[in-house]
Amino acid sequence: MKKLLLASVAVLAVASAAGANEVKLGIALGFSGPLDSLAPPMEAGAKFAIEKINESGLFLDGATITSVSGDSTCVDAGAATATAERLITAEGINGLIGAMCSGATGAIVSNVSVPNGMVQISPSATSPALSTIEDNGLFFRMAPSDARQGEVMTQIIMEQGINSVALTYTNNDYGKGLADSFAAAFEAAGGEITTSIPHDEAKGDYASEVGSLDAAGGEALVVAGYADGGGAGIIQAALDAGSFEQFILPDGMISDTLTDAFGSDLDGAFGQIPAPAGDGAGVFADMVGDAFDPTSAYAGESFDAAAVMLLAMQAAGSSAPADYLPKILEVANAPGEPIGPGDLAKALEILKSGGDIDYTGATGVELIGPGESGGTYRQVVVEGGAFKTVQMR
C-alpha cells in the first residue's frame, strides 16, 4: 500500500497556482495509439466537469478553471513523459488528469509527477503494479485494479461452462498485469490456460501468434489487448484462419470500434469493463445529452477525476497541489453529504462553509487502499454485431 507523504517542502512547493483568478488542469490522454477512439469522449467528460463548476461561479471565490490537453499515447512512455513535462513546466497546470493507459501513466508518475510534486488522477489506468508504485501519495485512479478484473473475468468464464482457454495479451504493463492476474485467478478456480502469448502493437500480420494459440487449443481465446490495435489484429487473424469460435474480451477490447469492424462475426463474444452502478450514470447521461457519448468507456470516470480534483481544491481553499492533496480522499469518501454528478454547485457551497461531502459522482466513486476505485463491472456480450449489457458485477 502506498504511503501518503506530505512532507518534503522542497518538492511540494514546486507546483503553485497558475494565477490568482485562474486554475488550470492538464488532460493527458491517448489521442494517438491503439485506444485513440476512447480519448475524445474521455477528454469531453473531464471538460464537462470543468464547465459545470465554472458555471456555478462558486469555485475558489470566483476563480476560472481552464484546461490544456496533450497526447500521452498508450504505448510510448517517452512521449507521455514529454507531454506531462510540457503541461507542468510550460503550461503551469495545477493538477493532471491522466494518463489513459497504464504504461504511460506509470512513466508520468515516476518521471514527472513525483519529481514535480504534482497531483495526478488517471480515469482509466488499471495495471495492478500502479497500486504499489512509489508515488509519494500523489497518484490516484478512478478505475479498479486489474487484480479485481482477473477475478471477475474468471467468474464470468466459469459460469459459461468454459474450463480451458488460450490467452494473448498486449506486450506492455496493462497487458502483462491483466494476464498475470487473470491467470492466477483462473487457475486457482480450476481452469486451464493452454498457452499465454504476448503480442506487439502495430504489426501488419498476427498469423504467427494465432497459429501458436490455435495449436495449443482451448475452448475460447482471451484477447487482453486494444480494440483499436493489436487486439483487433489478433481477432482478424483468427477469423481469417478459422481459429477459435469463442472470444473473451477484457476492458481494453470493449469499444464500438471493434463491433463496427467485425459486426456479427463477433456474435457470442463476451467480456467485462469497469462501469458505474447506481443512479449516477443515468444522471450523468441526462446532463450530457447529445454533447458527447456519456456511455463511452471511462467518460464518466474522466468527469469524476476532474470533479474530485477541483472539489479537493475547494476544500483546501487553494489550487496548490501541496495544499489540496490531503483533501482528495476526504471529498471522495464518506462521511459527508452525498454528492452526485449534478450536485457540484451544492458541493462547492458545503465545502466553502467548512462542511464535509461524499462525492459519488457519475461512477459511484469510493477510493480504497492506495487511492483507487474498488470497482464494479458491466458484463457484456456481442449480439447482432453490437455490445449488449448482461448484468452488473
CATH class of the largest domain: Alpha Beta
Biggest sheet character = 7 strands, mixed
Report the radius of gyration as a whole number of Å.
Answer: 21 Å
At the fourth CATH level, what is the homologous superfamily of the largest domain? Response regulator
Total DSSP E strands: 16
Instruction: Determine the strand fraction and express it as a percent band.
Output: 15-25%
In sequence order, what are the helices and strands, one letter per element? HEHEHEHEEHEHEHEHEHEHHHHEHEEEEE
The CATH architecture of the largest domain comes to 3-Layer(aba) Sandwich
DSSP helix fraction: 25-40%
Describe the global form.
globular
Average pLDDT figure: 93
| SS element count, helices | 14
Runs in which pLDDT lies below 50 for 5 or more consecutive residues are 1-19
**CATH topology tier name of the largest domain:** Rossmann fold
| Total number of domains | 2
Description:
With 393 residues, this protein is α/β, with parallel strands linked by helices. It has two domains: 9-144 and 278-373, Rossmann fold (3-Layer(aba) Sandwich); 146-273 and 375-392, Rossmann fold (3-Layer(aba) Sandwich). Helix content is 39%, strand content 20%. The protein has helices spanning 9-12, 39-56, 77-90, 102-116, 146-159, 173-188, 207-216, 230-241, 256-262, 280-288, 299-316, 321-324, 328-332, 344-352, and strands at 22-29, 64-71, 95-98, 120-122, 139-141, 164-170, 192-199, 220-224, 247-249, 270-274, 337-339, 357-359, 367-368, 372-373, 377-383, 386-392. The strands form four sheets. Strands 7-6-8-9-10-15-16 form a seven-stranded mixed β-sheet, with helices on both faces. Strands 2-1-3-4-5 form a five-stranded parallel β-sheet, sandwiched between helices. Helix 4 links the parallel strand 3 and strand 4. The longest helix has 18 residues, at 39-56. It is globular and about 65 Å long.
